Amino acid sequence: MQPADTRASVTAPDASAAPVPHDDRLRPGRPAFRRANLALFAAGIATFVLLYSTQGLLPVLSADLDLTPGQASWTASAATLGLALGLLPASALSDRYGRTAVMTASTLAASALALALPFAPDLTTLVALRALQGAALAGLPATAMAYLAEEIHPGALASAMGLYVAGNSIGGMGGRLLSGWTAAALGWRWGLAASAALALLAALAFRLLIPAARHFTPAPVDARALARTVGRHLRNPLLVRLYALGLLFMAVFGAVYNTAGYRLIAAPFHLPETVAASIFVVYLVGTGTSAAAGRLSARLGRRGALYVAIGVTTAGLLLSLADDLLCALLGLVLITAGFFAGHATASAAVGRTATEGRAQASALYLIAYYLGNSLGGTLGADAYHATGWPGSATVGLTATTLAAAVTLYATHQAHTARRAVADA
After folding, report:
1. Per-residue burial over 176-190, b = 16 or more CB atoms within 10 Å of its CB, e = otherwise
2. What is the mean pLDDT of residues 109-128?
3. Which CATH number do you get for residue 1?
4. What is this structure's pTM?
């Protein structure tokens, strides 16, 4: 499952379209409402099929091009790095030229680049194309939520966003599975071609289905307002801690899933490549734990939910160290569950914490999140090459230890603040 990416506007804080009557927006039962939902569902599939298309075929890439896991992992890390760097520019274009224009250009440009990937002659070219593809893909997560918020009736917004997130989840899992299974049978070039074909079909479906935006008002980019808002967010200690948590949780996820395929096809498991590629089905665990995170936060508080998420992730990492297939798979389930619970808790807290410039606050969280994927994925793959699975797990355990330290510090600060109020 992918995050419910939030609008990353770079105009003056909380700039929005001109107010319109609620009953003028799209409601359930209207054909345009169904088209908008299906269009964003298709766009989510296209985006996340492409973003994670190489993660499922890293072992095949290593074998065919004689690459270390660290070298092969750059094909995955470059895309998430490009996306992170492209979020704010893409949202600026969205504010200036329109939501549908930017989303259409984003999905079609990324799909066009995907068609070139199977013909990459070497690793350097492949990584460069993946970085460009990630930057092109940034237009959807930077814009989709803004389009839905502007065009969908508030009473139906939650269901529309849920369907968009479902498209992200299915695309993220499907991209990994499709490329991995195809690569195991026909080679990595065919794996990338299969992902490109699926993404192109989804991008075309988006373009044909998406209703024209009726409530978008172009806004000039105010660079000074952006700088002031970003500066305020980066001086807010609570937001900075939440950004750090997003980065650290995603670093665990990147380290684990960039190397899990290598581990499963090696001793002592020796699973076929097709079976090893199927581990991404575990990704569905995130659907349930993301939804449960809200209830957990309501019961235990934000920090309580974070402690649970960190503990579950850590337990999964420790369990995965056993040279037993059942333990390894159960460990992946726990790591995935803990990651999604922690990410859902931290990302939701960003929106509640930022009293102004919420769009920019969420954008900064997403930047940290995707940077964490690139950092953890690369470090985990290098560690796996050096020491095997214990190296990857150590990268993950380091990240969870740091996440625990951040959360403990937040707890200490909260207790100190409460004592100060009580003593006043």
Report:
1. bbbbbbbbbeebbbe
2. 96
3. 1.20.1250.20
4. 0.85
